[in-house]
Design a protein that fits this description.
single chain; alpha/beta; D-amino Acid Aminotransferase, Chain A, domain 1; Rossmann fold; 4 domains; seven-stranded antiparallel β-sheet; six-stranded mixed β-sheet; flat; disordered N terminus; disordered C terminus; binds adenosine-5'-diphosphate; binds magnesium ion
Length: about 750
Amino acid sequence: MTTVMSRNSLTEARAQGRTALDEASGKALLAQYGIAVPTTVVLKRTDDVDAALKGLSFPVVAKVVSSEILHKSDAGGVTVNLRSADEVRDAISSMAALPRIAAARVDGWLIEEMAPAGQEMVIGGLRDPDFGPLVMVGLGGIFVEVLGDVSFRICPITRLDAEEMIDELKGAAVLDGARGRPAVSREAIVDVLLKVGGENGLLMQHADDIREADINPLIVSAGGAVAVDARFILDGGADGHYMTAAHTTDFTPLFEPKTVAVIGASTKGTALPNIFIRRIREFGYEGAIYPIHPSAAEIDGLTAYKSLADTPEPIDYAYIAIAAAQIPPLLAGANGRLKFAQVISSGFGEVEEGRGLQDALVLAAAEGGARLIGPNCLGLYTPRGKITFTEIGPREVGTVGVISQSGGLGTDIIRRGLSRGLKFSGLVTVGNCADVTPSDLLEFYFADAATRVIGMYIETARDGRRLFDILRQAGACKPVVVLKGGRTSQGIAAAASHTGSLAGDDRVWVALSRQTGCILVDTLDQFIDTLLVFQTLKPRPEHPTQRVALFGNGGGTSVLATDFYARLGLDVTPFDPHAIAELAALGLPPGTSITNPVDCPVGTLQQEEGRVAQKILDIIHGSGKPDALVMHLNLSAFVGRTRPEVLDNLVQAAMRVQEHYPGQAHFVLVLRSDGDPPLERRKREFRDHAVELGVPVYDEMSNAGYALAALQGYERFVRKRTNLGSKRTEGNPRFPSVTSPPSV
Ligand code: ADP
Ligand code: MG
């Protein structure tokens, strides 16, 4: 008989070269972290039963111990509820005779006390290659196995994280005593989650040794929780790249370069770098431009130099588009005179045969003293520095800072974003992220005074843990919108061929969003819509967006939007009777709905140069008191629809009313059109004007809904984390993610 209470089972096991802990050692490890486990003995020989039972109280459980049997009960190797030594002996001999057990090498029999009856939970741990240790919780049985009803968080978790993990489970109500079953202690689950995944928890302390952990089940009753089964998979060779060291770099010279080198421009003037030179000149760049060329004396009217070390002044930013193999020697020779090298060329880590070259590139950049951006990217757009890789955009410095792992998508974000009214504080395409990562630039944007909202398109984050740490430390001081590519296995295949490394598991991104308040979106449109809402509206964490008023023309549109918004967690509920009475007193024509949504015939909206609309808006604000007001106009129904004054009147009316109720309702405009070209042109002008005034404009009610849901998620996150509100008042655990809408 062996009593298993060895002090340091994990170190011992690893020293013996074991790749897993047996159940008894696993429980001993849990016990060291203060997690309750049954009193357990392991019998090597069955004639020890009487002696073994001396320290135990009945009823007990007998289990087979064999490294060849993973799932003991599947093999018939667990017998519960044994009430005497004879029952234990009988159970062991029956189990030993079962074919799967008889065929295996049996190391002994584990006898332990029964845990008090309760709800079976699963608590797990997993080391993500990018993010490091993750902790998981789920309800036992079909909840985990069939429904996959689990929630993940990145370690270390806080008490609030642990509570939210449990709230997030679809089956969480079971814990509170569904269908006549007794309630169990959520506090006991939180306690075990913290002991496993908290700051000083088991997974953080042994991050280098534990690859996977499984407490299945943890039996939770009203009085506490007992871990009755434990499994740990060990490995020592954790590649640990998630622990990437942070470089602290001042990115100001990248965003405002005083000197630019261009490598790859031809004397014929037709190569991509020649176009780059033309674009930055058109964009208003006035600093020095140094073409680097092995033989030419002059390119595009500029004096050319033979190497990065030959230019008259040191270089802030180099734009490099030459054959991949020529780049490492070029960078290595920079002699500490180059700050940022952006390598546009491909043929590096994104293809199998380019991996070695990418390593050489990183080393060469470091040798030459530069930070490397890319390779395999498109460039940089920084209105404050007058640098752009794409066609000319506005020179005005905006507040949206973007990082994109895809160059093409970066172009889309700029072009489409600009036409939707976004104004950027910068956009960097980072390609393969061989050196500078999205986390580095995120850190810059958080500190950057010009940036108020941050957008990231990410396919892989090899320094995921650093990303997590930066986001967490920032405490959602600026909204961060994340468009993650490769969240499904199909997407992952595409990402692998694109950036040259595998994308992380979706679960970890959801966890990241829940823990740090970053907002996960699924499509480019949602990305732009969400950035726009944060560019224009000031979040109100002290009073998160909940009640939304809808006002406009189009009954069906309002009805559909009401349903859709409800699914997003926004309430479009009737105004109180006082507001309804005031609206009724306006004597609006039959067919006008006045309860919320308010929808009005287009003729009424246009009456008296928008004054009727103004009265309605006044009542909605004054008595209806919504948190947000969505005004939607179906432009195609307007009489004289392309005449400027038609819309101007209405929007001016809306703006006047807004001014009377400062800080009360977020105001959002939806301009719906039928695609008729003249109408589209009017709409575009109108949109620009409205965005200028601080009103976000959307094409459809659903886009506005997503954006408001994202705003709500952010406001709630900040409110909860900064204790602006009482704890746990919001029952909607979906925030702050605005991923796929509930199925429509
Ligand atoms: P398996 O290897 O099949 O996962 P377990 O050790 O988890 O084996 O035991 C199987 C089931 O037996 C558990 O899910 C639980 O329902 C029950 N069980 C095991 N040990 C105990 C115990 N000490 N107290 C109460 N029930 C137990
Ligand atoms: Mg088990």
